[in-house]
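Write out structure tokens for histidine kinase.
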Amino acid sequence: MTKEGSTLAGDYTDLVLDAICVVDAQGTCLSVTGACERIFGYTPAEMAGKKMLDLVHPDDRQRTAAAIDRVMGGYLQRYFENRYVRKDGRVVYISWSASWSQEHQVRIGVARDITQRKFDDQEWVAPQLLPDDLPCWQLSASPRRLVTPRGIHIALSEQDHIVLQTLMRESECVTRRTIVEALGKNFLEYDQRRLDTQMRRLRRKVKESCGQALPISTVYGVGYRFYAKATICG
């Protein structure tokens, strides 16, 4: 490669938003490419040899270790969010996608810094990582109702209650199959358009009742995610 080509490649690398981390079975970082220094504060050379879990915020280590176990068991992890402590001591919020290569015996993770989005758009942050004093949504079983952070009560059908309960119990994306089976239906026989229609109707109902958007995002091709703080009563 020419000197000019090498410089150009370096410029492109600097513009990459994500860091690609390769970690061995013991959790030791083997290499990092992309936005390593921008996200973690360490150069790729400094990252190599570090235990990735040691860089995780202490309050998130148990959750992160559980997610790592799932990945190494063959689960393709998407949209997992946790906090890391940078070299300069600052805390960053990171969204991960990760998978395990049985052939090469390495875990490959793609990390994106979502710290700014934490404040700009709560949809991108896991509920447990939001500020503790943030008003939450409440789901009640008796009577079936949704209480908004502003204290507005919205009556729910049994089906709406089951869907919201299923979504609120998870901090990550809930698959369509999980929702359909929670409704007591056969996923292979269920008309997926009915689920989409119900979600649109539920969003419209909440919007018309309180003027707030229902904090459910659609993860296309996968399912749905409830991205605000919530409590389930009864």
